[in-house]
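Entry: Peptidoglycan hydrolase
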Amino acid sequence: MKKFLCSILMASAMFVGFTGGTADAASKATAKSGTYITVHNANVRANAGTQHRRVFTLKKGTRVQLTHQKYAGKQLWYKVKINGKKGYVSSSLLKRSTGKAVAAASHTKGGGSGVVKTAMNLRGIPYRFGGTTTRGFDCSGFIQYSYKKNGKSVARTTTGQFKQSSKIKSPRPGDLVFFHNTYRKGISHVGIYVGNNKFVHAGGKKSEVVSLNNPYWKSKFNSFRRI
């Protein structure tokens, strides 16, 4: 009798182990590459499935790189990478990026020209540390205001805007220009590229247009970036 019970228990354990192994294999991540773009605001989770914690959120139109794919039940999830961060997004919230789609996602509702037009109209407004209104701007407040007027929400601080954006080699009007080691070490100043190697910013005594060939700003230049 004891031998019979032991046999049943051993068989049950083998069966559980076998089915468990099958489940693990079915949910194993496999390599997946490509550039995709979010079609809606998307929660990025620690693992595949809505039961896992949200690690950060991507806004609609954000371009991401895929590294893996995995099924959670019948739902396919993609592991994405952006600005050094990683996590899983439901495949239903992403579509493959094309040159046309990326270009559209890179601009605000009014286009890069809309941001530039708004920013240029703010020239002459006094510089004010911590300023976010037409009574006075600091550099990041100037950026936030110009983008907001064109339907785009951006971070309040220079470092926040830097983290929110992606580095580019060839800027278009409306993209951001970042500088480092101005009044502090690291990323410390930002302006809006207006074309012809010039940018508009809130700096000095007032908001104005400056050439990137200016010796001071040339020595402090860090990167062009796009939101």
